[in-house]
Amino acid sequence: MTPMSRVRARRWLGQACAYATLVAITLAICFPLMWALSTSLKPKSELSTPPTLVPHAPTLENYRHLLTGKSQYFAGGSGEYQPTTAPPQYFLSWFGNSIIVSLGSTVISIVISTLAAYSITRFRYKGRMAVPYFSLLGYMVPSIILVFPLFMVMTRLELTDSLWSLTLGYVSTTLPFCMWLLWAFFRGIPVELEEAAMIDGASRLRVFGEIVLPSALPGIIAAAIFSMIVSWNDYLFARVFMNSVDHYPLTVGVMLFFEGVHVDWGLMMASAVLMTVPMAVLFMALQRHLVAGFGAGAVKG
Amino acid sequence: MDDNKEARSRRKFLEDVSLLAAGSVAGSMLPTLPAFAQAKSKATGTVRVWGEPGPYGGVAVDGMNEWAAKFAPGLKFQIESLSWDSVYVKLMTDLAARRPANCISVESPIAMQLMAQGLLEPIDDVVKQVGRERLIDGAKWEYWGAWKGKQYVLPAHHQPHLLLVRQDVINELGLGDPDKWDWNDLLNAARTITEKKPGMAGISLALGRNLCTDYHFAALLHSAGGRMFDPSKQYEVVFDSPNTVEALEYVKSLLPYMPKSAVSASFLEVVDSIVTGKAAMAFYWGRPYGRAWDENKEVFKNLEAYNHARHPKTGNRSNWNDFQGWCIPKANNPYIKEVKAALAYYQTSKVWPVRYCQSLVPNVSPVYKDTAADPELQKHPFFETKKRTIDTYYTGSLKYSSSTANELLGGVNPLAGIVHGRSILAQTVQKVVIDNMKPADAAKWGAKELESVRKEHFSLVI
Amino acid sequence: MQKNEHWRAADNRIGLLFIAPFVVAALVFMVYPVLESIRMAFYYIDPLNPDAQRFAGLDNFGTVLRDPLFWSSFRNAAYWTFVSTILQTVAGVGIALLLHLPLRGISVFRGLLLFPYIVPTVVIALCWQWMLNPEIGIVNHTLRGAGIIDENIYWLSSPDMAMLSTIMLNVWKYTPFVTICVLARLQTVPTELYDAAKVDGAGVLRRFTDITLPQLAEVLAVVVVFRTIWTFNKFEEIYLLTRGGPGTSTYNLAIYSFEQSIANLRMGVGAATGVIMMLMLFLGSILYMRLFRFQDET
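ok -> structure tokens follow
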């Protein structure tokens, strides 16, 4: 064996080990969701038997029940008359609500924080450095402290039970984060190009729209993803702010399936899968921005 | 177009006739459709109705929607079912937001708390229409919620928890007639089953920090003659008593014969254990029958229910009963009139109360004599094999019923709702079964907590 | 000259205009709620009767500080935070190092390994409850099949196991956060450093301790502080899995505050707990600022 091939063999072995470790860790980490997916495809009869990863008789009935609003309550003990309402019939409304509030709060937070980040990195006025400090503090305040005071505000504004209360409520958690991240990002964008453009007579607004925004886009995308995730995943605010069953977002609505004496795990897992899909798609599509954005925001000062 | 109109009016006519017929068949007992249930309403929107999980809330709402279709076409009643563990969060946030549901179906402790807090609309007018004399024997209107001479809660159903047993196991081991058991016999049965039946727990109780535990323990507390408050002495706390200690010690003695998950168990886990055959006995309401029918026929076949075991010295037995009723929040509620009419409509109809009870036999017991006696009600498959058990739930249980909102049936207690909100009974039990606190000390701890409830909410009871 | 000054002022006005929405939003959605929660801490507030508030002085704080449950919640939270943060950091750094390897297809793994971070807590809690179900859950089934246990483990029914389960959930969900941060930093470490070390004959371990770790020190300090603060205040992860049980063995301060506000109908006490949490947070932030050394450009 030549030394060269020994080196190659060692490198090959190292790579094989690395791949094996990666695959093992990935499987371990993805297992809960793979298990959820597997459960969601099983008929009820397979749930209490010794579990298998691959369903014996895969079925989409759980998804059908969820999307068509079939009652998930056990049929036994009921008489001939069947009630016409059941929680799953709201699943699609919950889905829509979740999308509206997470998009809404993200748009608001991004617009406000982009403008503010531009302002504090490109203008000079007193107190502007308080903004990032302040945002950092706000970023760390846990929702449990904000939720009841905000709830009182929403009550006074008569906004509870409306999607506005959630949209605005989420701004209180997403805004400081977006602000912080975008501030860090904007600082990293060289100002020379903008100055050159302004010397050429371009207005501030034009510079902002044509030069700053495009170069800040990766940061904006990263902030937007995080903001979407935070809003989409929230349970606490929605639990406290929303009253009517058809106004819930997914997180709170789905918990209604835990209705006390009977859990339809197939239905539960189907909703868990559907709840994860939008964020997963977003995440996969924009993943590289995430690492880059995070590098700028949380890691570097 | 004209044809259509004629068809509709013909249908309307037929409906009216059938309604009249139904009224006359029911005889003098059932009043005909009360006038105010026929009042037309121009109100529009969604009427939010809270109910507990299960099909019956939806059935009642379907009945109310039938009223709406006839008399208030702009209205839609919508059921929101709440699992017990989230009732308090929901209650608090909805009331604080001044957006309570327009109609609420809850168990008596909560209903009475709301009632004493002045949050409910009196419903004496509805009761009058529904018929005061229709109430089932052995129950009183105040069990559901009456305060200072006014009725605030309309009975939806009564709902006892009893001693569920696997008759096959009891017979196999020769444990005797559960109906004649006292606490020692029950303990002995639990021990014998655990020892002789591998893989099966003797008895399943909820001991987690939740409402189910509160309700399970309340039955034992009341059976031992203990209570939380004394309504005759300005609701003084009387929890720190030998009776409480005895009940706690009894729970502790049962613990080795329960499933290992008992200390975190709630409603779901208890039903799971009995339906899957992991436990031979349980304290429970009538729900496991339906689930067993669906999931485990063998268990269904052998599942019977009895009034709870007697206290060995006094011979007292006590069946916790939810006394679930409808109530109407009065603040910011634009649909009070309509809800009252719809409630009166569904409760005076012949079909809806029967459908309501039939939707989950034997979990929701009828509250009106005519419903209970209706031959239609018995046209349910469970009556073929479970008649004795169903009768125990429906009528036999009432003689021994008790609830924390009306302890030992000796006086309405609006503080109970707050006690359950804080899970004080469950936490007292947990002090003993998880933290190994002495029962006497746990009783003191519980009494202290109850004292703070009384102090903070004394205005409710004066 | 004069004109230029004028332009500067006008230009600055645009800057103020740009910051204005932030100031308004921050006042309404961040400052006001915090001030309001401080105010609430000094009042008796029954959420069922929100209009009838009475001044309580320091009573609510007294109630909290005298409550043994508060202190046991504090201890649980400290334990939970300590163990979770250490595990997350170790696992996060390990995974980041793996993901930094120059392998083909690494971006696929990168995507999958960061995935848990985006999964809603509700979903994780549901999955966990399902997998940890003592009777029909996959975890007990697997352990029994492998001969590791004879009897089912009741994951959420004993204080120790429930704590372990919530820690596992937390580590699972937030390790990717550490990974992302560390990975981002790793990508900026100049490769020349490693090349030089290789020439000097440093082994893998030496290269890690001598080059990688010092380079990561700053980011790790930041990440640890962040994770500590957040983990300490987490609500949903515990509430949705155990509701603080069995007993009160997995209570932390957030759950304590929530239960005081809602179950006990004492919003003032809940708010007082929140204020105490904020004080701790403030101390934590000062620590963070110290570590972070803001370069304040003037």
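The CA atoms of residues 191 and 328 of chain B lie 47 Å apart.
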